[in-house]
């Protein structure tokens, strides 16, 4: 303060600086203790703030290290999964997926700025697009937190794999901002199931429908097409037992396969349902045409099925007796049509075999 007084004495009393120095001297002399307290508080506050800043920086550094560690652990876990994990960031329009996606499909799903709807980036089979629309609708309506669908996704070579797609979404303010998904390869399961279904539907020897499938498909057709005119053809081989007895069951199996092929050659439309009904019996259900057309077709079938088989120095001729009934003229259920066509078939047998008979009421009187 002595230095301050010397400077004060060397300055004119009218100068602003003199006034300022005089005021400063007054404050210092009268409030010195208070000023030191204030300065102490400020210093302590600054030190506290600095300490907090250092601590926060350390905590943030530790947090970032922990976050990096968790991220690394997450990616390790994801890469070890058999399933494919992907992440759609709808806000940033970014897609990330585990490396197994590229291993499985041969192309990458990692996209930085997609233009289409994010699900369309998956290259979904055209027939499954309707499922994707349903998924999108459910997500928009926020109806389901977890959505699971079976769809086909395209590989780089153009083939499709059956996959199970599971989606979970994150929303903010009733708006979906992120979709986390899992893709599971179920191709072998679906194909195995399809194979088992085929085996359950088809006769393993002749590769045409078995009896139970025939019942199911014909009944469904009648339900869906009640106003159609249809015919049921019941076929029973003549002399087939002689084939098994004299030529053996292996030849008998070949005769049955040959019979099925001949039936399919004559009745080859997409609307025809053909079945091995059991043993040496076969059934054909078809939307009917004119009587003359039907007679021509069945006459051709009779001619084709009339064949001679040779073995063990023995010749055996196999033919077919056939009965025909019409829907709804002769019956409005499959059971009634089978019953009527069986009556007609019996008449063909009684009248010399190797022929067909169309059902009429007089046949029941004869039976």
Automatic annotation (TrEMBL):
Organism superkingdom: Bacteria
Domain annotation GGDEF: ranges: 228-361
Residues that span the membrane, as ranges: 34-55
InterPro entries: Biofilm_reg_signaling, GGDEF_dom, Nucleotide_cyclase, PAS-like_dom_sf, PAS_fold_3, Rev_trsase/Diguanyl_cyclase
Keywords: Membrane, Transmembrane, Transmembrane helix
A Pfam family hit: PAS_3
Listed name of the protein: Diguanylate cyclase
């Amino acid at each position: 303060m002595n230095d301050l007084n010397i400077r004060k004495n060397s300055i004119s009393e009218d100068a602003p600086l003199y006034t300022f120095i005089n005021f400063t001297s007054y404050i210092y002399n009268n409030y010195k203790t208070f000023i030191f307290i204030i300065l102490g508080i400020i210093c302590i506050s600054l030190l506290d703030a600095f300490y907090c800043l250092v601590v926060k920086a350390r905590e943030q550094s530790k947090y970032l290290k922990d976050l990096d560690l968790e991220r690394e652990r997450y990616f390790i876990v994801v890469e070890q999964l058999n399933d494919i994990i992907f992440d759609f960031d709808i806000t940033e329009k970014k897609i990330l997926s585990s490396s197994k996606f590229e291993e499985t499909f041969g192309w990458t799903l990692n996209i930085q700025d997609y233009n289409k709807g994010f699900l369309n980036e998956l290259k979904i089979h055209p027939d499954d697009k309707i499922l994707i629309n349903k998924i999108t609708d459910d997500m928009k309506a926020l109806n389901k937190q977890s959505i699971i669908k079976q769809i086909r996704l395209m590989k780089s070579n153009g083939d499709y794999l059956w996959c199970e797609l599971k989606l979970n979404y994150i929303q903010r303010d009733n708006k979906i901002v992120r979709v986390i998904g899992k893709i599971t390869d179920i191709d072998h399961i679906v194909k195995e199931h399809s194979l088992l279904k085929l085996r359950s539907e088809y006769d393993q020897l002749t590769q045409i429908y078995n009896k139970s499938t025939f019942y199911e498909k014909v009944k469904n057709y009648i339900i869906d097409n009640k106003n159609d005119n249809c015919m049921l053809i019941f076929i029973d081989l003549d002399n087939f037992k002689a084939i098994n007895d004299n030529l053996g069951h292996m030849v008998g199996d070949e005769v049955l396969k040959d019979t099925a092929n001949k039936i399919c050659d004559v009745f080859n439309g997409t609307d025809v349902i053909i079945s091995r009904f059991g043993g040496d019996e076969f059934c054909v259900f078809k939307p009917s045409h004119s009587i003359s057309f039907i007679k021509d077709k069945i006459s051709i079938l009779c001619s084709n099925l009339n064949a001679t088989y040779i073995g063990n120095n023995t010749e055996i001729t196999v033919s077919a007796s056939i009965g025909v009934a019409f829907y709804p003229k002769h019956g409005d259920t499959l059971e009634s049509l089978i019953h009527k066509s069986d009556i007609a078939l019996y008449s063909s047998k009684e009248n010399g075999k190797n022929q067909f008979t169309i059902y009429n009421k007089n046949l029941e009187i004869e039976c």
